[in-house]
Amino acid sequence: MRYTQNQIAEIDILIRYNLQTTQQGIKVHSSANIEQVQAVERLFDKGLVTAIDGGYLTDLGRTAAEHAQALCLILAPHNQSIAS
């Protein structure tokens, strides 16, 4: 199974959230690129964020963001030695 462009855009939004605090959200302005605007709208429709333009992570959204951010760390070039 391959990731779709929509899924990649949604992951890109999820990795922008600061997981160190629940007091900080994000806002994707209507002037942002259309891919980002649509991605955050889909995340809202899926119940992962609290507002159609971003807002805060829901409990499910936090779990998704944790997994997305972990995946990015695992796949980062500085971790290539893990596979060796």
Could you give a short description of this structure?
With 84 residues, the protein is mainly alpha-helical.
Which sequence of strands runs across the widest sheet? 1-3-2
Radius of gyration over alpha carbons?
14 Å
- Beta-strand percentage range: 5-15%
- The secondary-structure element order is HEHEEH
- Computed structural class: mainly alpha
What's the average pLDDT? 91
Uncertain segments are none
The figure for the number of domains is 1
For the biggest sheet, the summary is:
3 strands, antiparallel
DSSP E strands, number: 3
- Report how far apart the termini are: 25 Å
- Spatial shape: globular
Write a structural description:
- There is one protein chain.
- The chain is mainly alpha-helical and 84 residues long.
- The protein has one domain.
- The protein has helices at residues 5-14, 34-45, 59-75, and strands at 26-27, 49-51, 54-57.
- Strands 1-3-2 form a three-stranded antiparallel β-sheet.
- Helix 1 crosses helix 2 (34-45).
- The longest helix is centred in the last third of the chain and has 17 residues, at 59-75.
- The model has no long low-confidence stretch (mean pLDDT 91).
